[in-house]
Amino acid sequence: YPTWKRTLARRARESQVKRFCKAQAIQRRLEEIEVTFRELEQQGIKLEKLLRDENESPADQQTQWTNQLLYLVQKKNNLMTEESDLMIAVQELKLEDQQCQLDQKLRSYMNKEETLKTPEDEKAEQEILKQLVEVVNKRNILIEMQEEKRLSEL
Questions:
Q1: How many angstroms separate the CA atoms of 54 and 62, rounded?
Q2: CA 40 to CA 19: how far, in whole Å?
Q3: Which H or E run includes 65?
Q4: How many other C-beta atoms lie within 10 A of the C-beta of residue 23?
Q5: Which of 71, 93, 129, 135 is the most buried (most CB within 10 A)?
Q6: 51 CB contacts (<8 Å, ≥6 apart)?
Q7: Structure confidence at residue 1 (pLDDT)
Q8: Residue 54: pLDDT band with limits 50, 70, 90
Q9: Closest CA to 89 of 132, 139, 136
Q10: Confidence of residue 128 (pLDDT cuts 50, 70, 90)
């Protein structure tokens, strides 16, 4: 087993572990966001009830509650934006993983001697290459979406 093949296999495993760790971190953050959403929702419900039921309250108090409610809405919008970014990151990780798998399959076909390749091998190699191009194009679309989103936020 040549050294370069071992190196490629090791790098592939390392990148797979990195993607897995990143996916776990994203999943944890998505769960935290979900919990925070529920908490904000409960706080918002309490504030809305206070605003509706306490018509006799001083104007300062109602203004304070309204400001708190607006702050909660802003916080929720920020979390929704972060959640959207994380979902894009999840899609990107899936495509990255798919690309890595296809790349390994393609390498195995390409490393085969031309004289030993069957017509089925050549057909499979072309199909994998086609799939790889599709995955790269999908990743490119995701990156363009992220860039457009970033520019629109500026």
A1: 8
A2: 31
A3: helix 59-110
A4: 15
A5: 135
A6: 62, 65, 66, 69
A7: 60
A8: confident
A9: 139
A10: very high
